[in-house]
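User: Sequence recovery, please. Input:
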């Protein structure tokens, strides 16, 4: 009689891989690093919508979160807002648009920059190995192109008389990525190229990589010389790849 499945990888109790290949993962509302609280001053409204319907494939939907400032300037002048994509970090194996640190960052970006912020989720390892995350990030920006071409955003409680959600400046799109999200931003830049011609009328004007996380089959200098960490160590990262 074989032994019962046992934990072979443990990522701070958030994600556990068992000897039989099964995965245990805490839900987003069970995770809060450093007890971060949401800082919402009411200057931004937000909505969650599906950008990639995977139910037809028997898989889960993928969501993104839209953030829009509600300043007087934006409302009275029907101002077309620049668009910022924000891809969260987490070493490709943890993270979500709903995490307080990600949510706070997007609230602040939208409010202070007066921009429409789009924060997509993407599939995580080890359930979905790379390049699944890259494919989802690509799909999330193609979703924006579809909205630009059809000139509408649809969601269950959408008010057809309120065009403030669809008044975007598709010619001013910027992509920001944190950690593994920075890696995603890098790959999107390579894929779309200068001016992102395949996304027309959407045009990505720039990419911002915040402490980008890179790794590959060949060890970088920091991977070879740096101390091993209990969280996202080389053994875990090799399994993600």
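Assistant: Recovered sequence (241 residues):
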């Amino acid at each position: 009689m074989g032994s019962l499945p046992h934990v072979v990888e443990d990522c701070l109790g958030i994600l556990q891989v068992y000897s039989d290949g099964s995965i245990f993962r805490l839900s987003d509302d069970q995770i809060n690093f450093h007890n971060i609280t949401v800082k919402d001053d009411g200057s931004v409204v937000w909505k969650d919508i599906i950008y990639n319907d995977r139910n037809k494939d028997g898989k889960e939907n993928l969501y993104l979160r839209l953030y829009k400032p509600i300043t007087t300037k934006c409302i009275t002048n029907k101002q077309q807002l620049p668009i910022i994509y924000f891809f969260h970090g987490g070493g490709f194996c943890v993270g979500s648009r709903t995490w307080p640190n990600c949510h706070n960052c997007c609230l602040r970006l939208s409010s202070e920059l007066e921009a429409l912020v789009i924060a997509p989720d993407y599939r995580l390892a080890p359930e979905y190995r790379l390049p699944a995350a890259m494919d989802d990030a690509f799909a999330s920006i193609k979703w924006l192109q579809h909205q630009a071409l059809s000139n509408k955003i649809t969601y269950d409680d959408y008010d057809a008389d309120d065009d403030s959600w669809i008044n975007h400046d598709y010619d001013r799109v910027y992509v920001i990525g944190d950690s593994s999200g920075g890696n995603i931003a890098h790959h999107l830049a390579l894929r779309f190229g200068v001016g992102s011609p395949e996304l027309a009328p959407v045009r990505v004007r720039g990419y911002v990589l915040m402490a980008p996380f890179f790794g590959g089959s060949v060890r970088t200098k920091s991977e070879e010389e740096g101390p091993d960490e209990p969280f996202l160590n080389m053994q875990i990262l090799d399994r993600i790849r």
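The chain has one domain: 32-240.
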